[in-house]
Amino acid sequence: MRKLAAAVKSVEIPAEHAAVEKPVRDSGSPPQVSSLRAAQMELTRTRIREAASRVFFEQHYDRTTMDQIAAAAQVQRSTVYMHFKDKTAILAAIVEDYLPRARKVMERLPGPSPSHTEIEQWIETVAKFWRQEKVAATILQEVGREAPGLPSLRELATELYQGLARNVPAFADLDEALVELSDKRSHAEMLIFQLTFTCNQALSRSDKQHVAALRRLTAEAFAVFIEKYRPKATER
Known about the structure:
Layout: H1 2-10, H2 31-59, H3 66-73, H4 77-83, H5 87-106, H6 116-132, H7 134-146, H8 151-165, H9 182-204, H10 208-229
Helix pairs in contact: 2-3, 2-5, 2-7, 3-4, 5-8, 6-9, 6-10, 9-10
């Protein structure tokens, strides 16, 4: 018997008949479940952001509480904090959503040296965009007046300038932190302020002659800036 046992032990089992180790199955959620949860979380985040936009618009950013945002979104306060640590984070999400569309309309300014008529036509386009984006545009304008140093608003300003610079080189380099460009940046900020004021007036006033005069004056201001800061080598 001992000889038989030893003989059995010495026999090699062919590789094709050897036991194959089965991989350990992942005990986590199936991929489709994880994807569904991620989609649900994104929907909740969007719901909170849109609710916050309405509340910010109706009663101002500074006077809005996280409890009010939760009530408007019809979620628990803890759910709001699960997605956003504070109001500043919600504002940043509003900017992130608004920014691509705002930059796109800035890029429609003809270049490199548009005529007054072309600038006025572009201002009309911006005014239409402002009407469509009334809630976000108004919120960002109000917050910008009171807290211009917020990172999300600085990012928005940079994107707007880069959009303008796409066709008009005079708006280039405004995102550079150079002392010699401080006057140019201040001049550009005044232009944006004047543009938003004109768009607000176009939205709220029925006096078409008044709005047309504002549009003409704003176009002239843009023309002065473009001529002043136009690179010397740029030809019309």
